[in-house]
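Example record for the data management plan.
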Amino acid sequence: MKELAQVAEGVACCERCPLYIGATQAVVGEGPAPAAIMLVGEQPGDQEDRAGRPFVGPAGRLLDRALKESDLDWSNVFVTNVVKHFKHEQRGKRRIHKQPSRYEVRRCRWWLDREIAIVRPKLVVALGTTAAREIAGRPITISRERGRLIRLDDGRNALATVHPAAILRIREETSRNDAYIAFVGDLKRAKRLVMS
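Corresponding structural encoding:
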């Protein structure tokens, strides 16, 4: 779609915050426009930064599996991040994820707003606290807000859930499996909301 291509061109040369300096490239959203559901994460990770595509690393593989188990088709889902450049610190040869600052998130919101306007999702699903806070426009505690419909200023509805990367960080297998099942449940709820 022409409008999304224009957003990608703009993000590719964006200098609205300093994150572009350390990133390999900008990573914009992917998927159909319009889309029933827009999934919004925090920022690209190491593999996404290298590939130039959202959710292609371990968290993306977990998301893909969860979408399949939720009977959600990628043809109905647009996936993106609040921040379009990878924020990290170098530790030897590894690049370790660092949470973007409020300033960086706010400076990048301009691009997310354009994606939302083009994609026109029926439902926005915020993956993780950073995305939920930015989407809702207020502090969000996932454990309290999870599963509740959040009404946005533009009239759209949103849901907040965990980020797939948070599930991967759970060391204990039973707890990790429980978190994954709850995540699939959130995606199934999202599907019911847009299909009803």
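Summary line stored alongside the record: The two ends are 27 Å apart (CA to CA).
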